[in-house]
C-alpha cells in the first residue's frame, strides 16, 4: 500500500479514482467550444419552430456566457460540472418540446445536436491537462497504485478525451455516467470502478473538482476525498472533502 497525504490528512491506499473534467484536464479547454456549438445548434432547431433560446440560456448547460457571446467559464455547481449528458439533453429537449414538437422527435433532434458537438470537439478543442497531471500519474504508477477514472461524462467520449491527451494507458478502468444506474453524487461509480480494478472502496482515494465528486466518495466510504481546485474558485473545501489542493505537487506519496 501507499501512504497518500494531502493537507493534514493521510491514508494508506492501493488505488486512486480520478474525475476527468477539471481534475485531469482544464475544464473549459474542452467544454468551452463544445458549449458554444451546442447552444448555437440548439438555437437553430428552436428557430425552425418559431422559438428561441431563453434570455439567459447558460443555465441549460451550466455555463457563463460573456458579453461577446463566448463561453470561457462555467458554473462549478451547474449541469456541465455536476450533471450528465442525458440530464442536459433532457433540459434542451423540454425547450424544443415546448414549441409544439412531439417529445420523441424533440429528443431525437436534440440528441443529434449533442452528438454532433461530441464528434467535432476532439478536432476543434485544444485539451489542456491540469498542471502536473502527467508527472503525478507517473509517480502513482511507479509506486504500483491502480488508477481509474470516474466521470459524469459518458464512457465512449471520455476514452477519446484521455486518448487525445495521451494518458489513457495510465488507467485500468474508465467509468462513465452511462455505465451506472445512478451517477454522482451516488456511490455507484466508485463501487463499479472498484469491482473492475479489484479493490475495495476503503482502499482507494477519490480526487475530483466538484461537490458531486466529494459526495460520491463519501457515500462510497473511500479512504480519502481530495478536492482539487486549480482555478481557485473555492476559498474552502466542500464539506464532504477531506482535503483541498491547488496542484498535484501538494499530494504526498510514500511507499
From TrEMBL:
CDD domains: HAD_like. Keywords: Hydrolase. The keyword Transferase does not apply. SUPFAM superfamilies: HAD-like (SSF56784). One of its GO terms (biological process) is DNA repair. Pfam families: Hydrolase. GO terms for molecular function: phosphoglycolate phosphatase activity. InterPro entries: HAD-like_hydrolase_sf (IPR050155), HAD-like_sf (IPR036412), HAD-SF_hydro_IA (IPR006439), HAD_sf (IPR023214), PGP-like_dom2 (IPR023198). PANTHER family: PHOSPHOGLYCOLATE PHOSPHATASE. This is HAD-superfamily hydrolase. It comes from Paenibacillus dendritiformis C454.
Amino acid at each position: 500500500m501507499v501512504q497518500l497525504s494531502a493537507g493534514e490528512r493521510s491514508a494508506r491506499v492501493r488505488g486512486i479514482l480520478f474525475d476527468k473534467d477539471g481534475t485531469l484536464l482544464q475544464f473549459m479547454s474542452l467544454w468551452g467550444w463544445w458549449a458554444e456549438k451546442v447552444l448555437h445548434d440548439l438555437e437553430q432547431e428552436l428557430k425552425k419552430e418559431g422559438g428561441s433560446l431563453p434570455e439567459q440560456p447558460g443555465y441549460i448547460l451550466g455555463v457563463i456566457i460573456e458579453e461577446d457571446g463566448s463561453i470561457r467559464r462555467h458554473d462549478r455547481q451547474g449541469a456541465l460540472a455536476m450533471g450528465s449528458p442525458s440530464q442536459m439533453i433532457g433540459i434542451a429537449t423540454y425547450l424544443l418540446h415546448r414549441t409544439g414538437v412531439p417529445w420523441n422527435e424533440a429528443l431525437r433532434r436534440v440528441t443529434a445536436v449533442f452528438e454532433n458537438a461530441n464528434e467535432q470537439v476532439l478536432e476543434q478543442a485544444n485539451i489542456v491537462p491540469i498542471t502536473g497531471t502527467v508527472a503525478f500519474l507517473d509517480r502513482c504508477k511507479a509506486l504500483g497504485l491502480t488508477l481509474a477514472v470516474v466521470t459524469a461524462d459518458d464512457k465512449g467520449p471520455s476514452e477519446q478525451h484521455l486518448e487525445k491527451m495521451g494518458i489513457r494507458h495510465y488507467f485500468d478502468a474508465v467509468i462513465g455516467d452511462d455505465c451506472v444506474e445512478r451517477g454522482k453524487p451516488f456511490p455507484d461509480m466508485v463501487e463499479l470502478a472498484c469491482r473492475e480494478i479489484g479493490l475495495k472502496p476503503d482502499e482507494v482515494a477519490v480526487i475530483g473538482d466538484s461537490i458531486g465528486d466529494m459526495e460520491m466518495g463519501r457515500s462510497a466510504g473511500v479512504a480519502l476525498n481530495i478536492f482539487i481546485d486549480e482555478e481557485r474558485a473555492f476559498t474552502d473545501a466542500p464539506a464532504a472533502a477531506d482535503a483541498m489542493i491547488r496542484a498535484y505537487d501538494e499530494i504526498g506519496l510514500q511507499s
